[in-house]
Design a protein that fits this description.
Family: Belongs to the HIBADH-related family.
Helix content: 55-70%
Order of helices and strands: EHEHEHEHEHEEHEHEHHHHH
Strand content: 5-15%
CATH architecture of the largest domain: 3-Layer(aba) Sandwich
Organism: Pseudonocardia xishanensis
Structural class: alpha/beta
Strand order of the largest sheet: 3-2-1-4-5-6
Keywords: Oxidoreductase
Largest sheet: 6 strands, parallel
Protein name: 6-phosphogluconate dehydrogenase NADP-binding domain-containing protein
CATH topology of the largest domain: Rossmann fold
Pfam families: NAD_binding_2
Length: 277
Amino acid sequence: MTDRHGFIGLGDLGLPMAERLADGGFLHAAWARSPERCAPLRTAGVAVADSPTDLGLRCDVVHVCVTDDDALVEVVDRLAPGLNPGDLVVVHSTVLPDACDEIAHRLAPRGVGVVDAPVCGGPVRARAGELLISCGGDDEQIDRCRPALEQLGRTVRRVGGLGSGERVKLAMNLLYAANVEIICQAMDFAEELGVPREIMSEFVRALPYDGFVGGPLATGHVGSSRVRHGARMLAKDVDYASRAAADAGADARDLLKLGTTAISSLADVADEVATPA
């Protein structure tokens, strides 16, 4: 029998991912805290569940893309009563590896499996099906959801046991944070050399970065609220990377310093965007 896939978490990244799954014929149902976020999926013929529990009753494989550890645990607790033995939860959220272990522990009595499959790449790559997906968990469970994951990403790789995908993603997020800071510093340096910001922005926009890093960050083409949201998410990611490094006894001081500085730089960009020239 073909698995019926569901999706929880229709934010800036989750919605285009869900739309890709719908386009590929995978998505059966979806749920979001804000019902209006489901409108494009409803138009595409996807069922809209009344609650996470209702979604669990409708689906065999549930993809979850929410903001953090607490949101993940909370929504899985609400999803669990609708799940059956043999069902599978696929975690696309960026969370600590321990959060994956926690929900696996909670779902084990129900015979429900967990795969962590966090994604690298923003909404543009999500729409194009070009995300990078690092998977952690059981080989058979990953292979079971691989066709759906390949609809979402151009690189789908098992990197180890449960939580391993998140470890790769946390390291990638520090790389991302370092790039944010380097771009911010390069823009300032160019201005000091007398290069008009709009000219430098044109070159920065051509860099192969998704989201606000290569383009809107450099130009102010997004509102300050979007940039501030990016700063908050980056702060969460840097904090998680710091905690993971401490747990592993890893020395990530230089990368973490760049990440922390990037958060401040994004806040400065948000202030500039909000202040008319």
